[in-house]
Amino acid sequence: MSTTGSRDPDIDADFAARTCAHPDCNLVGEFRAPRSRDALDSYYWFCLEHVREYNAAWNYYADMDDAAMEAERRNDIVWRRPTWPLGTRTGNDGEKFADPLRLLGRDGPDGAETRAADVQLQSLTPSEREAISVLGLVAPVTKADVKVRYKILAKMLHPDANGGDKRAEDRLKSVNYAYTTLRDSERLI
Ligand SMILES: [Zn+2]
């Protein structure tokens, strides 16, 4: 292997830093954002719109470990529309109560939702169920939910936005596969 030295990686990196790091954006990268929590002094450069987007995703995903990710999937507060308008869930006696851990199962206030999830999950193949989990979604989901989630993840995990990070690359492959699986499913509306 010969290195003629015609390309200086530092200069290339510097040049790359001048345009927005978003893969589909050619605007000037004027705003910086740290690459990761382990490298707070190493930056991506973005245009205004994309630094906002990046920061929003950063705050949301915040270097979650697997356990936190799992908790987030269950928590599910940001991405999923509520099944009922807030305040209409009542127990049989009309008294509102919370059952965040679903200890009451089908008899709790989330019973109907749990049933809807069960009905959908039972209709799906194991790989479709896995795909829902890979995308960080919780049943019941629609194809529209899947598409919205996919777009966000694909953007976040794009190699150009992750400096070629192998973990992001691997995760993107899983996400792509999960998306295709659900998009092509006849069992999802
Ligand atoms: Zn941009």
Explain what this protein looks like in three dimensions.
It is a single chain. By secondary structure, this protein is mainly alpha-helical. The protein folds into two domains: 13-77; 111-183, Helix Hairpins, CATH 1.10.287.110. It is built from seven helices and two strands; from the N terminus they run αββαααααα. It has a two-stranded antiparallel ribbon with strand order 1-2. Strand 1 and strand 2 (39-46) form a beta hairpin. Helix 5 (126-134) crosses helix 7 and helix 6 runs antiparallel to helix 7 (166-183). Residues 1-12 and 77-97 have low confidence and may be disordered. Residues 20, 22, 25, 27, 46-47, 49-50 line the site of zinc ion (ZN).
Radius of gyration: 21 Å
List of distinct ligands in this structure: zinc ion
As for the number of domains, it is 2
Helix and strand run: HEEHHHHHH
Q: In terms of per-residue confidence, which ranges show pLDDT below 50 for 5 or more consecutive residues? A: 1-12, 77-97
Distance between the termini: 54 Å
Global structural class: mainly alpha
CATH topology of the largest domain: Helix Hairpins
Arrangement of strands in the largest sheet: 1-2
Coarse shape: elongated
Sheet bearing the most strands, described? 2 strands, antiparallel
Just name the CATH architecture of the largest domain. Answer: Orthogonal Bundle
